[in-house]
């Protein structure tokens, strides 16, 4: 047994020794291959091969160097304009939050200034008021301004910061920075600033069917189209909407008059040469003829129920009116991206909205049998359903903003509407927030108001 064991041990030793020699041989080959001079000495590599290997190493080094330079150039270069005012707001925002962390949502107000400096920060006065409310003690705005300036970080943008008057902070930009931006403008042309792309829904123009566009509609159209082009240019996803007045009581009046004037209207399309005159005729009848008024209300009910005959009559009026509107749009060069989406579009959504509001206890009946919704901060409620069961502008505008937020996924909604609608729109915006449709951190809603043209009676 012992002899067998010794023999087995010898065999293992021989195998181990053989394996070690094989390892040594392989390591020698590896060392040889990695040593160009030894390869040449052994005759395994020619001088030409070694020369090519050297050239390859030089080219590899140059390629890495060029790539590095290119990365640096790309890092330095930009294809967008700087938002100078936005930069200043960001810097002063940091200083304000550092100086007054106890103030929730402080006002950061930076304005261009041509008189004393390049820009001016006017936040000190409003922050002083907020601090007074929080602490119960009056705060000097100039001291607030001094605290803000003290917290300003080092910046390559500012040449001089001065406090003037009761707390205005004057900001002078560095000449080198301004010259650099002018150079960019001259070499790169006018570029939009870099920003986060948003889904923008902009409501403008919005004429009434069967009525001529007045100067308010023209203003809304021109302002809204200009804003849409600018927002698209800077990179936002813009949806242009034309919130037409194409539903409600006036269409019952128009349809009833249309039926009387053109009994065969569905077979022979009527030729209404002057739709405005047609509207005036129907209005006179509506105001002076009780039988006609009752018929007009019946037409409204049938139209809202989408009765085929009455809906076809409505479409005739709609098409004639829009033909004239588009003639004007063409002269104004309004984008063909403007989408027709009148009050009629929201009919089914209004029905659903009223049902949801009623079931959730958000509405109540007033003493006249109208269903209303009270909105925090406003004494006059939104009228959701009239006593006769009809819907109102309040109903359609609530359904409208809900659709834009939830179906269109709007980040930013803009209403280009005259200043006379300010209170109504503020109520609708607050109602949307009260119903949980809007989130201040995600949504922005603006009313771009313009003035009214008044008659001699003011």
3D architecture notes:
This protein is α/β, with parallel strands linked by helices and 458 residues long. The protein folds into three domains: 30 residues, no CATH class; 105 residues, Gyrase A, domain 2 (2-Layer Sandwich); 250 residues, HUPs (Rossmann fold), CATH 3.40.50.620. It contains 15 helices and twelve strands. The model has no long low-confidence stretch (mean pLDDT 86). It is an enzyme of class 6 (ligase). It catalyses: tRNA(Arg) + L-arginine + ATP = L-arginyl-tRNA(Arg) + AMP + diphosphate. Belongs to the class-I aminoacyl-tRNA synthetase family.
The amount of beta strand, in percent, is: 5-15%
User: From the 3D coordinates, which CATH architecture of the largest domain would you assign?
Assistant: 3-Layer(aba) Sandwich
How many separate structural domains? 3
Task: Give the averaged pLDDT, no decimals.
Answer: 86
Q: Describe the global form.
A: extended
End-to-end separation in angstroms reads 128 Å
Helix fraction, binned, reads: 40-55%
CATH homologous superfamily caption of the largest domain: HUPs
Helical region count? 15
The string of secondary-structure elements, in order, is: HHHHEEHHEEHEHEHHHHEHEEEHEHE
Radius of gyration: 38 Å
Q: Which residues sit in consecutive blocks of at least 5 with pLDDT less than 50?
A: none
| The CATH class of the largest domain | Alpha Beta
Total number of β-strand segments? 12
Could you tell me the CATH topology label of the largest domain: Rossmann fold
Strand order of the largest sheet: 7-6-5-11-12
The biggest sheet amounts to: 5 strands, parallel
Structural class: alpha/beta
């Amino acid at each position: 047994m012992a002899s067998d064991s010794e023999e087995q041990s010898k065999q293992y030793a021989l195998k181990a020794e053989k394996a070690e020699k094989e390892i040594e041989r392989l390591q020698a080959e590896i060392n040889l291959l990695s040593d160009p001079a030894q390869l040449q000495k052994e005759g395994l590599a020619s001088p030409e091969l070694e020369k090519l290997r050297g050239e390859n190493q030089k080219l590899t080094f140059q390629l890495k160097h060029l790539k590095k330079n290119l990365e640096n150039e790309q890092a330095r270069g930009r294809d967008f304009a700087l938002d100078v005012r936005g930069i200043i707001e960001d810097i002063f925002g940091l200083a304000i939050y550092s100086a007054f962390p106890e103030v929730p949502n402080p006002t950061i107000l930076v304005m261009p200034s041509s008189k004393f400096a390049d820009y001016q920060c006017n936040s000190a006065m409003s922050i002083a008021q907020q601090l007074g409310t929080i602490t119960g003690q009056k705060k000097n705005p100039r001291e607030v301004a001094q605290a803000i300036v003290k917290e300003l970080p080092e910046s390559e943008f500012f040449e001089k910061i001065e406090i003037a008057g009761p707390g205005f902070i004057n900001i002078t930009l560095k000449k080198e920075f301004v010259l650099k931006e002018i150079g960019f403008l001259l070499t790169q042309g006018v570029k939009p600033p870099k920003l986060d792309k948003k889904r923008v829904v902009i409501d403008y123009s919005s004429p009434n069917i069967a009525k001529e566009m007045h100067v308010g509609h023209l203003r809304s159209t021109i302002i809204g189209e200009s804003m849409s082009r600018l927002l698209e240019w800077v990179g936002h996803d813009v949806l242009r909407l034309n919130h037409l007045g194409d539903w409600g009581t006036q269409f019952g009046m128009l349809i009833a008059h249309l039926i009387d004037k053109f009994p065969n209207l569905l077979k022979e399309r009527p030729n209404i040469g002057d739709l405005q005159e047609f509207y005036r005729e129907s209005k006179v009848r509506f105001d002076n003829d009780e039988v006609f008024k009752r018929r007009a209300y019946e037409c409204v009910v049938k139209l809202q129920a989408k009765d085929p005959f009455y809906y076809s009559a409505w479409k005739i009026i709609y098409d004639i009116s829009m033909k004239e509107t588009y003639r004007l749009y063409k002269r104004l060069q309004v984008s063909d991206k403007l989408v027709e989406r009148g009050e009629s579009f929201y009919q089914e959504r209004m029905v659903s909205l009223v049902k949801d509001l009623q079931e959730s206890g958000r509405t109540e009946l007033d003493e006249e049998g109208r269903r209303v919704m009270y909105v925090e901060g406003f004494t006059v409620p939104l009228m959701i359903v009239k006593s006769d069961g009809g819907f109102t502008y309040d109903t359609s505008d609530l359904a409208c903003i809900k659709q834009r937020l939830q179906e269109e996924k709007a980040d930013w909604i803009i209403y280009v509407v005259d200043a006379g609608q300010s209170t109504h729109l503020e109520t609708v915006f607050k109602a949307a927030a009260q119903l949980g449709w809007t989130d201040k951190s995600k949504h922005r809603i603006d009313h771009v108001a313009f003035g009214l043209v008044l008659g001699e009676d003011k």
